[in-house]
Design a protein that fits this description.
By secondary structure, this protein is mostly helical. The chain is built from 16 helices and no strands.
Length: 438
């Protein structure tokens, strides 16, 4: 499992590193710039997250088809994914245009609203390649080869750093655009990443894209694929917006609270890329095992994934708990922002283990084609437990920022327990392949 997951983890870290680099490189402009970029990434991700989850339908559809040796089903799945990617990208781009109105309605700090909205509109220029990249990435992960994805993420990160250096600070004769320049850099990097992946992965992807199949747009199979992907999108939305709503709460308190929150969350998101990568590996190998009718292998792979994910997050939790100040000052030395981050980073450490467990169990269930029940479990965990508790502790006690994060810890713990129980039940029952085209 570690061998299968390691490349996917590197891919996730590479993609997440773009946001981290953006935040680090604008950090020299002050806390307001950090808050603007972080809030802009939150805005982009939360309007995109349903579409990202929707495309994760490719995990069970393609992986199980690969395991069964059904090449026609693989091609149909990929082509339907591309159709969905174009539609989702158009909707996301429209949603990112009215940034000032959206952020103003959500009562975010006035000093960051304008730059956040501009950053988001520059990010929208990279929405289409981002979703196309997601389709081909999920396809290659389901097939097994991941080197083209790693190379694409690496090249994109180099481009992101270079263009950030040019456009944030105005080096080499380029205009100094600050936060706006960081948005351009990320959008350009998305185009580069998609292009490199298609170039390097084309020998494997060619037969999934050509010839274009007329039955791809048939209503019944497309609806079956949507019924697999939509619950994943809902599940991801419930979790993502729980964190996003916490960011909004922080914005109501002030810019320093928002910036400190985003620093802690930025680091937690970086470590989360490891169990998220293990989750992707679990979805692929469990899906392939089910496709070839090997339930015992699916059970072993699920257990191995859980051990790897929880084991890593236990180690990262120790670092977060014992070195919060050192970690916070890697981003900024602004005293008010650092104080908030130092208070929150140990709490990020405590929820690491739960976050790893719920991420990996989600991948196991996704590989089995079980997507509807996990969506309900996430809604209960985050919106029945986490957000209400965080709201009460944050606004009605002296814990303030820490209160919001304690709510997140509770929500993640509930999701981890509920989904672990679902995995136990699901993998003990007979498993059948997901078939989109009967």
């Amino acid at each position: 499992m570690a061998q299968v997951a390691a490349p996917i983890v590197l891919i996730n870290l590479g993609i997440q590193a773009m946001g981290v680099v953006d935040t680090l490189m604008v950090g020299h402009l002050g806390g307001a710039a950090i808050a603007a970029v972080a809030l802009g990434n939150f805005y982009f991700f939360n309007v995109s997250v349903f579409g990202i989850g929707l495309l994760f339908a490719l995990d069970p559809v393609v992986a199980q088809a690969v395991g069964a040796g059904d090449h026609t089903a693989v091609a149909r799945g990929v082509q339907r994914g591309l159709v969905l990617a174009v539609g989702v990208a158009c909707l996301v781009m429209l949603a990112l245009i009215p940034g000032e109105w959206v952020l103003g309605t959500l009562e975010q700090p006035p000093e960051v609203v304008k730059e956040t909205a501009v950053y988001a509109r520059r990010r929208l220029l990279g929405a289409l390649p981002f979703f196309v990249f997601s389709v081909f990435r999920q396809t290659l992960q389901a097939m097994g080869p991941t080197r083209p994805i790693i190379a694409a993420a690496l090249v994109a990160n180099v481009v992101n750093v270079l263009v950030n250096w040019l456009l944030i600070y105005g080096n080499a004769g380029f205009p100094a655009l600050g936060v706006e320049g960081s948005g351009y850099a990320t959008a350009i990097s998305m185009w580069v990443m998609a292009a490199v992946l298609m170039w390097l992965g084309w020998p494997l992807l060619r037969d999934t894209v050509r010839p274009w199949r007329r039955d791809v747009l048939e209503r019944a199979p497309m609806l079956r694929m949507l019924r697999i992907g939509a619950p994943i999108g809902v599940q991801w939305f419930f979790e993502s917006f729980a964190f996003g709503l916490t960011a909004l709460f922080m914005g109501w308190i002030g810019t320093a609270s928002l910036a400190g929150h985003e620093i802690a969350l930025n680091m937690a998101a970086m470590t989360f890329m490891v169990p998220l990568g293990i989750s992707g590996a679990a979805a692929a190998v469990v899906g392939r095992a089910i496709g070839r009718g090997d339930q015992a292998a699916a059970q072993r792979d699920a257990l191995a994934a859980i051990v790897c994910g929880v084991g890593f997050m236990s180690i990262s939790a120790v670092v977060f708990i014992f070195a919060p100040e050192w970690l916070a000052t890697r981003y900024t030395t602004e005293a008010a922002t650092v104080a908030v981050a130092v208070a929150l980073i140990p709490l990020a450490g405590w929820f690491q283990v739960f976050d790893g467990l719920q991420a990996v169990t989600s991948g196991v269930l996704r590989g089995a084609g079980d997507t509807r029940v996990p969506a309900v479990l996430h809604m209960v965990a985050f919106w029945g437990i986490g957000i209400p508790l965080g709201y009460v502790l944050g606004f009605h006690t002296d814990w303030r920022e820490r209160g919001f994060w304690l709510g997140l810890v509770a929500g993640l713990a509930a999701a981890a327990v509920l989904q672990s129980a679902r995995v136990w039940k699901r993998l003990r029952a007979p498993l059948a392949r997901v078939v989109v085209d009967p």
